[in-house]
Amino acid sequence: MNFQGFQNILLNLISVRLNPAANATDATSGWVNVPAPSGVGGPVGSGTILTNISTGGRYFNISNPYTNPGTSELQVDLQTLQDNVVIFNTGGVPPQTYHTVQLKIDPNVPGTIVPNCASQSPAPIEGCISYPVRIKGASVTAQTRLPVKANKLTTLVLAIAVPTPITPPNVTGGKFTIGPQISLVPNATGSPAVNSLMTQIQGSVSGIPPGQKEVVIAENAGTSNQVAIAEVRNGEYAMQVPAGPNGTNYDIFAFGAGSTYDLVTPNSPSPPQPLQRGINNIVNFTVKSAKTGVLTGVISDDCTINPAVPIEGATVELLTSSNGTDCTTVPTPADCVVVATTSTNVFGQYPTPGRSGMPQPFNFVPSSPNPYAIRISASGFDTMIAPVTSSGGKVTCGTNQNCNFALTHAQITGTVSITPGVNSNAEVQVFAEDTGTNNIVSALPSPLAIPACGSPPCTAGFRLNVPLSPGTYDVFATSIDLYNGAPAPFTTHEYSVVSGVTPPGKCEAASISIPTLLCAGHGSFSGTVSLPFDSGTTVQLLKDGVQIEQSQVGAAGTGNSGNYSFCAPADDYDVERAENGVLVPPAMNVMVPTPIPTSTPCVMCTNGGVCPGNCSDQQGPSL
Amino acid sequence: MLRVLRQASAPLLVVVLAMAAAGCNIGNTVLSTSGLPNVQGQLSFRVVGVIGTPFTAILSDARSSWRLRGTVPTTFAIVNGQLPARMILTKTASNKNLVSLEIINGYLPTMLASTYQPYGIVQAQIGGTLGVLAPQAAPDVRFGLRAPLIALVTGNIEDLNSSFAIEQRVPTVFLFDSPNGRVDGIFNLDNLGAGSMTIDLQYQTGANPTVVCEQTSNSGQIIIKYPGCTATPVPQAAGAEAPDATELPDQVDLNSSD
Prior knowledge:
- By secondary structure, chain A is an all-beta fold.
- Chain A contains 1 helix and 48 strands.
- In chain A, strands 1, 2, 3, 5, 6, 7, 8 and 10 form an 8-stranded mixed β-sheet that branches. In chain A, strands 23-22-26-27-28 form a 5-stranded antiparallel β-sheet, with no helix packed on it.
- Chain A is globular, with a radius of gyration of 26 Å.
- Chain B has one domain.
- In chain B, strand 7 and strand 8 (108-115) form a beta hairpin.
- In chain B, the strands form 3 sheets. Chain B has a 9-stranded mixed β-sheet, with no helix packed on it.
- Chains A and B meet through strand 1, strand 3, helix 1, strand 4 and strand 9 of A and helix 1, strand 1, strand 2, strand 3 and strand 4 of B.
């Protein structure tokens, strides 16, 4: 689909339902519902485990409270989904052949569209703001033939299309009308029936202690993002996970609360990675009974003593390998896998409780000859990695055997100035990123609320934690705006930047003054990048050498192939292609024009009484 | 019921993608408790997406605001809130993980916003325009419910005037807007098979540091009240004032008819 002209097309999905009858309607009996995961908004697991999480339901039901509370929804961005798949959920359904499949979209809040600015001038409606969506047609239905066999995992891949043209509203704030369609991406006819957009992982787990529940988990390689969790039954498991056009790398490991870990990575000799679409990969694991211990501790701010102030919301990860690799090395070796993740509470304590159907892995760290490592990260702090040992039911960390850690940081202090709107405060967020990169490392815990003052612009101070390493940062500020009283996804004020800020040292602050954020109005531009490009290709938007936004590049082979697009306030920018985050010169200049002023009252910001009008789109450079 | 379904069924994995084309919800139970009048359905802000993604946020209704930290998924529910309300959330991870913010008013989602951007910002608003965020809640009272992910909790949150029936999936933080004096909460973990439940009751007022009462139970029910619980102060930077017990309200008697 050609999404050029849109920043986002977001659909709010409630469920997928199936009916064995052909051309089934609402009046047809026999519908089977697979709802969005309740209270999560994303998949918790797939395979044959955790179907009991699927307890979404539309209405309060006092007789069956497990269907409460209310509807769960998954908001998907069709821009991001292109040529890629997202796991919706796993559900138990009667084994039979289904002929009608229906995608249920929230009838009350079907979705949101964020268009670019209109190409004509004067623009009839504003761009770069959120518009509600009206769904054309009574239902989004497809006819198919989907056999579901008992005790077998069946994959249903739905392709969502939104045929163009998408009908815009006549006035700003009206509804875009779309007519989404679905079709099934067929599964292979052989056995196993691996979908052409997925890869299957199946095999056995031997050595499980009697009575112990064991699962196999697949994560995006090098991350803690668990894509699928499969329960091991009778020593066997199976799961299907998404695979990109060029395959996808996964870390896969077996876990049980009383046995050792066994794991494979892209570095393992088998299976060959990245895992390819349509392929069945055999991955067998061997575990053995082991004493387990509890890994617990407190994370605090190293710049505070007596008392040490806890860090709430820090991410704590446990890593290990299958071959004795030292996982405390930086960068983390590819042989190391994140086998457990948790976060800290208001006291800085970890771990938090696990999830239903699975024990908290931090409470069951098995004794192992392979060393563990603990990695702690929090926005604005240096990431810490320390060795962990689990032996004889006892878990210790580092040389002092204490699993409490204090994270180091420096600070950047400064001021921000802006003119608040009428009857409102200005909300300004400040970010710090590693200089010359788009690697953001810190943001204020909450935006600065700057009230109106006697002589605008009005100023507020901030204090921003930053890591000690690498030590030099680019800082930028952006205003979080309303448009006509409603939340706006893109700012109407210029970005303000300061580059190359270097705090003097640990717990010490560098002081800066961020230039005033001026009311500019919206703007947008789009362009293309030349071949070759892949999922690691992005386009960076820079102001005065500081990277402030990035755009994905449309996947090859789609209607959006090679396209990039930005919504950015009127200003003078550079755009530059990047591969895996590294800029690839040359940078190209883009001047986003200031919208033609409009008469008051201002529906966004005001600049000395001047109100920006509707923005206009322009062509961006080819990169 | 679910177990029966699982035994008699086959697992179906559903995935979605975009392709080229031609061309309570919190316990919004409107209930009356102990003879008290009904209240409107409650309001919650649910942060969902890729599990474990960290974020910070500020949530404000017409008279109070709260600074928040958390990881996906977490629900923030306002008890005794006053519209309009607005939440501004900043994802604090430099990755492309999805973070969605859903406003659920009564039973139904009323607004959703999402970001995939590194350190992306999302905001959502309900009940009109809230151009000026309210001052920090005073007192700032929070009931943080922790149990295995997505366990279902029901119960009541009360002050001297009102009792609010609640129902929510954990992890959830109930934010009690403008309570009248002493507060208490009764929480039932409905699906006991999920494991134990922990309630953190945070209370902060004036220049005093936040104090936390924590209770864990495997029995399925927790009753917690402040004052009247063992409160531990959260360490804060040196120089801050110590809590002043004399400013705290009297202990509540849960057996009374209040």
